[in-house]
Write a structure and sequence with these properties.
4-stranded antiparallel beta sheet, alpha+beta, 7 helices
């Protein structure tokens, strides 16, 4: 009888061990990265590890913001805007690849998508109700042409073909950051997740659907 009881006790322990661990959605909303609201959710069996995974996503997004923001004078994009008209400028592979993607979108849309819209766009400050006059716009307009951004894959450089050209990756940077966030979570082993930045979002089940990054930069 004692042997039978012991056998049943062992079986009960094994069955409990075989049951799936309790999991839950771990969610965080953060404002201020890339000038928008970031939402990250992961389906995690361990809430602490889930929060660590969210930290990793937000760190990646902060890195992209620090690299791509035109509002930060030290960002790589700001440095490109300041120097690329003077000659070829070596840039990171990440930025080079994103500029290549932007160029491809411009070709596909016959210039309707164009990151050089910033050549005029930077003259506006909607928060301060500042708008350029017609003469300023006319002077800056010739700099809007994606073909002014010349990429050299062999040397991983970018240069602008004329003075006055400026770029802004706001049209694709948020979508890119969302995809990078999902990739971070997948590398950490999370198969059910959601990452949103403003109006751009992706889940781990539909990450490929977000590759058509959309946003500003459309003429």
């Amino acid at each position: 009888m004692k042997h039978a009881f012991t056998s049943w006790a062992i079986l009960a322990v094994l069955l409990c061990a075989a049951l799936p661990a309790h999991a839950e959605w771990v969610r965080r909303i953060t404002d201020g990265i890339m000038g928008t609201r970031i939402t990250v959710e992961v389906w995690a069996e361990d809430a602490d590890k889930g929060n660590q995974a969210i930290d990793a996503v937000l760190d990646e997004m902060r890195h992209i913001d620090e690299t791509m923001s035109t509002y930060k004078p030290t960002s790589e994009v700001s440095q490109v805007n300041a120097k690329a008209a003077d000659g070829p400028m070596h840039i990171s592979k990440e930025l080079f690849d994103l500029l290549t993607t932007a160029s491809q979108y411009s070709e596909i849309t016959d210039g309707a998508f164009d990151i050089t819209y910033a050549s005029v766009g930077y003259l506006y400050d909607f928060r301060k109700h500042i708008r350029p006059d017609d003469a300023q716009i006319a002077q800056a307009l010739p700099a809007i042409n994606y073909r002014h951004v010349i990429l050299d894959p062999g040397n991983q450089t970018v240069r602008f073909s004329q003075k006055g050209v400026r770029i802004d990756l706001g049209g694709i940077a948020k979508g890119y950051s969302v995809d990078c966030g999902i990739d971070v979570l997948k590398r950490l082993g999370y198969t059910r997740a959601y990452v949103g930045a403003g109006g751009t979002a992706a889940s781990s089940a539909t990450v490929s659907a977000s590759r058509g990054w959309s946003g500003s930069g459309i003429r």
